[in-house]
Amino acid sequence: MLSAEYERMFALENEHWWFVARRSLTLQLLERFGTAGGRLLDLGCGTGAVLQELTARGRAVGIDSSPLALSLSRQRGLQGLIRGDAQAMPFRSESFDAVVSLDLFEHLPSDRAGIAEAFRVLRPGGILVLAVPAMESLWGPHDVALMHHRRYSRAEIVVLLKASGFGIRRASYSLFFLYPLVRWVRLLERRRGGQPRSSLKPVPNRINRALIALQRFEAAILGRVDLPWGSSVVVVAERPARRALPGSK
User: Fold this and answer.
1) Would you say residue 244 lies in a domain?
2) d(CA 144, CA 190)
3) Is residue 246 one of the residues assigned to a domain?
4) What is the pLDDT of residue 194?
5) pTM of this structure
6) What's the domain range around 56?
7) What per-residue confidence (pLDDT) applies to 212?
8) CA distances from residue 94 to 74, 91, 157 in whole angstroms, order as listed
9) How far is Cα 190 from Cα 180, in angstroms, rounded to an integer?
């Protein structure tokens, strides 16, 4: 991403509804389908807000390719930060109980390599919780500013995960209720032109609180059923546990 976007993320992600809701949903899914403890990896840790939450719950490590992102993470007092490529990670195979990767795979030249690496570093029975931007029809200046290579349909990301050996525990769109508003905003951005920049901006406190509440309501629904549309895709995938051989103990 552009340096200005990392700075914007660092300034907003503690309180902004988008980041707060995304972290809350991620932790909810981690606790429901996997573990909130154990050895955890924040794959594409960015400026560290998610890693901070994971560190409070287990032995967490964060990896990112951006020196600026890691520097901003250190300002949170975080340790266990590693600069590295998600497509070729410097970890032993089967090192982690869970991997969290929020809005990373769309940045990688080879998302297949990144997903294969996530599979490799997970122990059998471990889970991957990921989020990626959805709907190619939403492509616009926001994606250009964040240096995305692609957006995904739910079916596309599920196919990629299964090709690497993952089983799918949950695959849903998110930002379901706000999807019409997101489409309208992206249409205006494309018509406006000018310098690409992300859509995330500060919002008044009252609206921010209302949007957090709306997303918590959506998360409660998503915990039970998959949602049919939205501007993000959220997936819980599992590296299958090894099956014992007949006669083994």
Assistant:
1) no
2) 11
3) no
4) 63
5) 0.90
6) 3-238
7) 96
8) 27, 9, 22
9) 16
